[in-house]
Write a structure and sequence with these properties.
This protein has about 375 residues and is an alpha/beta fold. It starts with 11 loop residues before the first strand and ends with a helix.
């Protein structure tokens, strides 16, 4: 795509699951903030600040529209990243409403460690449940009574999805529980899975969806009553006396400030708005090309007896290792050919290392920036290594 014209000839970027490349309109939006209205949001009255406020408010609206959730029920708050957002919620939950915390075995360390710390801090029981090969959860085998459930809707090592997400959310709510969805790996290419899903909170990282480094929490307004005041600071209050304060979040127009302490990343927020507009304009032809690239690369990897794929189906994110070959050395070898891909356990140490017992792995994660020639080059270089 022409919006990634900064990619050099022969450079192949295959690490979109970590952070995607940013298309030109996103870069332009960030530059526009810094060169045209560099100012604090929600604090100033001069025209630059008014422009910043308008841009930030537009981005909140775009986020809700993108995942099809109503503004009368949901609020958008900006944070650092998915990890920060999940921790921000868990560290302020009033435990009188809950008896346990539940996560799954295929989680990124973001929810996995956050739920571990939550359990240790509160004394609440922590359960780590299994996920099916297709990513779904067998609801009938689990008790979600008064549980805080934190699970992903798309895996960061093989892309498997929480296919029965609607049923899971419904079951958790019916049991008097609360559910937080880690949507970091879904927002770029699989946003449909969370569209219209009325979880208590959906956390994701903008930098995985062609936007700048930024975190987002989309949260149900009813969550407010289950929070304690555990993380406070500038930009969150309407008034402060010596030993008391009035939170701005008590006003529905400023509810988002409940998770927005201090100065926000105004330029990055503008970039997220531009990224959502850009994603909405991606053509069917470009989406089809991405699917075809993923299928071609999957078929190639699947076709070798030496390649052991974790994936059970094609996906823009594929994880594998080559029998008898160190993945880190493979990563270095590919780097010398200008092919950029991630190696290791991808912050899923528990499942990949201790449950499956796999060696360090190689991950190829594709994006809309990839050209047909990228796959041809990867196959050519990999063939030399495999054969």
């Amino acid at each position: 795509m022409e919006d990634f014209d900064f990619l050099g000839d022969g450079e192949v970027y295959l690490d979109g699951a970590c952070q995607s490349l940013r298309p030109r309109p996103v870069i332009d939006a960030i530059n526009s903030y810094y060169t045209e209205h560099n100012s604090c949001g929600e604090r100033v009255k001069y025209k630059w600040g008014v422009k910043t406020d308008e841009t930030v408010e537009e981005t909140r609206e775009l986020v809700l529209k993108f995942i099809k959730l109503p503004s009368r029920k949901y609020t958008v708050s900006f944070t650092l990243n998915t990890t920060y957002g999940i921790n921000l919620i868990l560290n302020q939950l009033d435990t009188k409403y809950f008896d346990k915390v539940v996560t799954s075995e295929i989680e990124h360390n973001s929810p996995f460690l956050a739920t571990m710390a939550f359990s240790q801090r509160t004394g609440l029981l922590r359960e780590v449940i299994k996920r099916n090969d297709d990513g779904s959860i067998d609801i009938k085998n689990h008790d979600f009574t008064r549980a805080v459930v934190v699970v992903n809707c798309a895996s960061n090592f093989d892309g498997r999805k929480l296919l029965n997400i609607k049923e899971v959310v419904k079951a958790v709510h019916k049991a008097g529980g609360l559910i937080i969805i880690d949507a970091a790996q879904a927002m770029a290419h699989s946003a449909d899975i969370v569209r219209g899903i009325e979880a208590d909170a959906i956390c994701f990282s903008a930098h995985k969806m062609y936007a700048p480094s930024l975190g987002v929490i989309v949260w149900h307004n009813d969550l407010l009553e289950k929070l304690t005041d555990g993380f406070l600071g500038g930009g969150m209050v309407d008034d402060v006396e010596k030993d008391s304060y009035i939170l701005s979040a008590s006003n529905k127009e400023h509810r988002h400030t409940r998770f927005e302490s201090g100065l926000q990343a105004w330029g990055e927020i503008a970039g997220l708005g531009a990224a959502i507009k850009w994603l909405d304009k991606v053509s069917k032809k470009d989406w089809r090309a991405l699917e075809e690239n993923a299928q071609e690369l999957y078929d190639f990897l699947k076709g070798s007896d030496k390649v052991l794929l974790v994936n059970s189906a094609p996906n823009t994110t594929m994880t594998f290792y080559i029998d008898g070959f160190d993945s880190h050395l493979l990563g270095n070898a590919l780097s010398r050919e200008d092919i950029m891909a991630r190696t290791g356990y991808f912050c899923v140490h528990y499942y990949l290392d201790h449950v499956l017992g796999l060696p360090p792995l190689m991950r190829f994660s594709l994006g809309l920036h990839n050209r047909p020639g990228d796959i041809t080059k990867v196959k050519k270089i990999m063939e030399k290594i495999i054969y």
